[in-house]
Amino acid sequence: MRRRANAIRIIGGAWRSRRIDFPATLELRPTPDRVRETLFNWLGQDLSGKSCLDLYAGSGALGFEAASRGAAEVTMVERDRAAFAALRANAAMLGARNVRLVHADALEFIRAVRPCFDVVFLDPPFSLPLPQKVLARMPSLLCPGAVVYLERGEPFEPCGGARVLKRARAGEVHFHLLDWGADDQGNLSGIV
Predict the structure, then answer these.
(1) What are the Cα distances from residue 17, in Å, to 64, 94, 159?
(2) Are 119 and 43 spatial neighbours (Cβ–Cβ below 8 Å)?
(3) CA 15 to CA 69: how far, in whole Å?
(4) How far apart are CA 121 and CA 101, in angstroms?
(5) Domain 5-179 CATH assignment equals 3.10.180.10
(6) Bridge partners (DSSP) listed for residue 103
(7) pLDDT score of 17 more than 80
(8) Tens digit of pLDDT for each residue in 116-125?
(9) Do the Cβ atoms of 44 and 15 come closer than 8 Å?
(10) pLDDT band at 166, cuts 50/70/90?
(11) Mind giving me the DSSP string for 69-138?
(12) Is residue 44 pLDDT above 80, yes or no?
């Protein structure tokens, strides 16, 4: 029996209103429109020149949204085969030249990667515990002034040098904007 694909729409940027499909699985829970709208208001609507990492890409909602809003490069990491195949199909359908897809486990990927990122999206499956090993490696992945978006089923309590810049809740989704070291004035290069 073939699984029916689900779809979400991109809410801003060059691909606004375009729909992307993702497989119907229990683990995939795309970031809702309202949450993405708040997140990209926090980040600024234009991500031109930014390097982004969508570490648990899943449906691709966050990564494709960032790419649509002009990010120079969006690296999307996903280990699930069906989800990765859908990401590949969506990237081709959108003509997403600024998207790099990586079929890998999140922790394995960050152990091997060397570049720094301006924005990191962390939206692991809610059924998994908070990936402490991933959080511990965050500082080595971040460019100066970088921010990390974290989405969970419960509020995040800062640890390991992380600082909560903004937080909000929409239904069962708790979402946070974090950093690992602002300048002395608390500025983040105009991102917040």
Answers:
(1) 12, 12, 37
(2) yes
(3) 8
(4) 14
(5) no
(6) 78
(7) yes
(8) 999 999 998 8
(9) no
(10) very high
(11) TTBSEEEEEE--HHHHHHHHHHHHHHT-TTEEEEES-HHHHHHH----EEEEEE---TTSPP-HHHHHHH
(12) yes
User: For residue 115, what pLDDT band results from cuts at 50, 70 and 90?
Assistant: confident
Reference 160, options 138, 186, 182; nearest CA is 138
Instruction: Work out the number of other CB atoms within 10 angstroms of the CB of residue 179.
Output: 21
CA distance 188 to 108: 28
Return the amino acid letter for 174. H
Sequence spans of domains, the chain:
5-179
Kindly state the DSSP code that residue 48 receives in the 8-state scheme: B
Whether 183 shows a pLDDT value over 90: the answer reads no
Q: Report the C-alpha gap between 10 and 7 in whole angstroms.
A: 10
Transcribe 7-23 into DSSP letters. EEE--SSTTTT-EEEEE
d(CA 50, CA 146): 10
The angle at the Cα of 45, spanning 44 to 51, to the nearest 5 degrees, equals: 75
